[in-house]
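Quick one, tokens below:
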């Protein structure tokens, strides 16, 4: 038998086992996506907070968002979410959520 491959017969036990493996892979993919989404929301929250702080303390207004967008898109060309409009949305989202967050913590 040296050098010859032994055939494998797919039986019900194997079918059940491989379906279980596939299910676990799919479940892990979903869990990973949820974790990535959570981390992205956390990142957007931090960016929104930083934008608001810079606009307040440095008095930069909205003009710096164009430069910020260019800088981030240049550094992370394969990552979406850093257009000027999206940075404005992140800013608005932070300003919209922060009062509700403060109200719930009272």
């Amino acid at each position: 038998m040296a050098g010859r491959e032994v055939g494998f017969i797919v039986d019900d036990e194997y079918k059940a086992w491989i379906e279980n493996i596939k299910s676990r892979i799919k479940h892990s993919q979903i869990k990973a996506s949820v974790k990535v989404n959570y981390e992205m929301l956390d990142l957007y929250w931090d960016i929104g907070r930083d934008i608001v702080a810079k606009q307040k303390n440095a008095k930069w207004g909205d003009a710096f968002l164009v430069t910020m967008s260019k800088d981030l898109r240049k550094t992370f060309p394969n990552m979406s979410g850093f257009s000027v409009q999206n940075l404005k949305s992140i800013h608005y989202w932070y300003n919209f959520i922060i009062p509700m967050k403060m109200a719930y913590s009272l």
